[in-house]
């Protein structure tokens, strides 16, 4: 929690004024019992109506001044809390954006969403309430005890016993509750994770008629969350009855002692009423404080969860500088391979074995490389190493002769255009989505990218053209249209290296062939990596890399691999009828060259 308080530094004035005005309100509230004492002991005792009216007007004035102080305090507290919450959210979101895929995979999307929303809301509410009540309640509790001592020491000793007992109850319950509230948030993460999975995979669930199983899984997670919430709620619920028992018990003792004191002439009736009023004030404030403690216990647990994300360090520092030797190499960079994998190994965090082992190959500038293999063979893992979504665990990946780990991430990813397996569009217009690749792109540049991606007809078919609206996730486009628009987005920046990660799976063979032909004819032809399940998409590539269980099973051309690589031959024959001719004749099939 302490680390988050730094976000209040821009609201120092509000953080001071809010509790200050609350304490002013409390001060006026502490004066009221003394006025009531004067009304009873002077006005009523002497039957002085004028005096009673004057004292009542004083009480009204104290109430109005207290109201103004209270409203002012709540304004400053709300301003500080809202600003604090905004800054924490901005900081947390920016920090999550700086994390590598490794840290995001480890933390989990569901828990990051919970911490960004629910957890920060809890902390923001706690800050608001603390600024309003955390000083006011103790001030009234101890102020009432001091005022009681000014009236009668013997009676005030009851306050001195009751307050420590109440403190023991409050802080004892708090000590038990904080760890339990942390578990509540963890179970909330689980429920959110199940909900997210169901919403993302609703079509698959319905296709396999798994609605009942998913309902049961959700109910199980919800029951676990409900049980923990009820359990910690029961513990927290002890606060109010225990505090009421102590306060009411103290009030009974106070009335008995006060009656004896009045009978002996030591105290007046008004002073006894004042003492009871002070005890009532303590009761009200301790109930508020108890509820505040419950809120604080939740907030501390939530704040610790937010802090744990903020303290998570990225395995890929953003600002890294290329060695000075780079300038020397610029003259000869054209002679270097565009991309070089040197005995690369990759093991995901927590994995028992490597996902990629001893990957070694080089790609010349302008070459097209096809990557193929069975499901889980490591195709996507391999291309994710080029823009450095993950770091190699051994070996090195080089672009223009330099290790990718030596580049600043922004500079490295400016060189690379990547189209992911899942086509993702963002809410906005088509133009806004395409300009992710190049923010200052002109209409001519965008239409050029659309034509290469075979997506011009998609834009022309929408009312408004480039200004046509895109719904969240691109729901108002078909799968093939989304894929073509995401390819256009990557092409808009004219990248040095273009990675198509199974990004044409929703396209028909003719459109796929036109796309590959258009990319080949691009000005300043990029180095292209095509990950595909279709041999037809990569058979005309300059080089094909065949992966099996994270290892290279073969590297070569289509014709050569049909002869030398059994894995490639099996994939090819599973997609086409087995040819009786020699592989060389099979390679003469008609098709658009890439």
Total count of domains: 2
Number of helices: 22
Please name the CATH architecture of the largest domain.
Answer: Up-down Bundle
* Distance separating the two termini: 58 Å
CATH superfamily of the largest domain: ABC transporter type 1, transmembrane domain
Parts with pLDDT < 50 across at least 5 consecutive residues:
321-331, 578-594
Question: Could you describe the largest sheet, including whether it forms a barrel?
Answer: 6 strands, mixed
- C-alpha geometry: elongated
CATH topology of the largest domain: ABC transporter transmembrane region fold
Binned, the helix content reads: 55-70%
Give the helix/strand class.
alpha/beta
Strand order of the largest sheet: 6-9-10-3-11-12
Instruction: Tell how many strands the DSSP assignment holds.
Output: 12
Cα gyration radius (Å) = 36 Å
Percent strand: 5-15%
What is the average of the pLDDT values?
83
CATH class of the largest domain: Mainly Alpha
Short recap of the structure:
The chain is of the alpha/beta class and 594 residues long. The protein is 62% helix and 10% strand.
Write the layout of secondary structure elements.
Elements: H1 12-46, H2 49-98, H3 101-107, H4 109-134, H5 136-151, H6 153-200, H7 202-207, H8 211-237, H9 239-263, H10 269-310, H11 325-329, E1 339-346, E2 356-363, E3 368-373, H12 379-384, E4 394-399, E5 402-403, H13 409-415, E6 416-419, E7 428-429, H14 430-434, H15 443-452, H16 456-460, E8 469-470, H17 479-491, E9 497-501, H18 509-520, E10 527-531, H19 535-538, E11 543-548, E12 551-556, H20 558-564, H21 566-575, H22 583-586
Helix pairs in contact: 1-2, 1-4, 1-5, 1-10, 2-4, 4-6, 4-10, 5-6, 5-10, 6-8, 6-9, 6-10, 9-10, 15-17, 20-21
């Amino acid at each position: 929690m302490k680390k988050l308080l730094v976000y209040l530094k821009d609201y120092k004035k509000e953080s001071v004024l809010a509790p200050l005005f609350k304490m002013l309100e409390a001060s006026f509230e502490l004066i009221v019992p003394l006025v009531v004492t004067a009304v009873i002991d002077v006005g009523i005792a002497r039957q002085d109506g004028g005096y009673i009216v004057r004292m009542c007007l004083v009480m009204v004035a104290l109430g109005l001044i207290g109201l103004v102080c209270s409203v002012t305090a709540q304004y400053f507290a709300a301003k500080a809390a809202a600003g604090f919450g905004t800054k924490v959210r901005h900081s947390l979101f920016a920090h999550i954006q700086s994390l590598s895929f490794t840290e995001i995979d480890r933390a989990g999307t569901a828990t990051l969403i919970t911490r960004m929303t629910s957890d920060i809301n809890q902390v923001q509410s706690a800050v608001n309430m603390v600024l309003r009540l955390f000083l006011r309640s103790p001030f009234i509790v101890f102020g009432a005890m001091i005022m009681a001592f000014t009236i009668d020491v013997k009676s005030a000793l009851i306050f001195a016993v009751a307050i420590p007992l109440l403190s023991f109850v409050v802080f004892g319950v708090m000590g038990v509750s904080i760890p339990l509230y942390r578990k509540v948030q963890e179970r909330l993460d689980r429920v959110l994770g199940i909900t997210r999975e169901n919403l993302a995979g609703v079509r698959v669930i319905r296709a396999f008629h798994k609605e009942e199983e998913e309902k049961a899984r959700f109910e199980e997670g919800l029951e676990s969350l409900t049980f923990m919430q009820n359990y910690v709620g029961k513990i927290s619920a002890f606060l109010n009855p225990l505090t009421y028992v102590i306060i009411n018990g103290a009030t009974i003792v106070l009335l008995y002692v006060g009656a004896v004191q009045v009978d002996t002439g030591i105290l007046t009736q008004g002073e006894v009423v004042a003492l009871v009023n002070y005890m009532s004030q303590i009761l009200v404030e301790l109930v508020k404080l108890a509820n505040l403690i419950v809120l604080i216990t939740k907030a501390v647990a939530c704040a610790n969860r937010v802090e744990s994300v903020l303290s998570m360090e990225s395995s890929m520092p953003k600002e890294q500088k290329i060695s000075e030797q780079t300038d020397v190499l610029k003259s000869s960079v054209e002679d270097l391979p565009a991309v070089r994998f040197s005995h690369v190994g990759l093991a995901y965090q927590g994995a028992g074995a490597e996902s990629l082992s001893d990957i070694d190959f080089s790609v010349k500038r302008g070459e097209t490389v096809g990557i193929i293999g069975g499901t889980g063979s490591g195709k996507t893992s391999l291309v994710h190493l080029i823009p450095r979504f993950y770091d190699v665990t051994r070996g090195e990946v080089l672009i223009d002769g330099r290790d990718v780990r030596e580049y600043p991430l922004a500079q490295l990813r400016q060189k690379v255009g990547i189209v992911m397996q899942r086509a993702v569009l963002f809410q906005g217009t088509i133009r806004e989505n395409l300009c992710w690749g190049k923010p200052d792109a002109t209409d001519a540049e965008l239409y050029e990218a659309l034509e290469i991606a075979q997506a011009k007809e998609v834009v022309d078919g929408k009312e408004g053209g480039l200004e046509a609206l895109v719904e969240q996730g691109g729901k108002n486009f078909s799968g093939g249209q989304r894929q073509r628009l995401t390819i256009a987005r990557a092409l808009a920046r004219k990248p040095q290296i273009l990675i198509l990660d199974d990004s044409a799976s929703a396209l028909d063979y003719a459109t796929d062939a036109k796309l590959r032909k258009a990319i080949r004819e691009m000005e300043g032809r990029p180095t292209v990596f095509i990950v595909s399940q279709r041999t037809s998409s990569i058979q005309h590539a300059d080089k094909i890399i065949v992966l099996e269980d994270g290892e290279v099973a073969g590297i070569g051309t289509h014709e050569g691999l049909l002869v030398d690589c059994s894995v490639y031959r099996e994939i090819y024959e599973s997609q086409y009828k087995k040819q009786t001719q020699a592989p060389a004749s099979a390679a003469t099939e008609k098709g658009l060259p890439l």
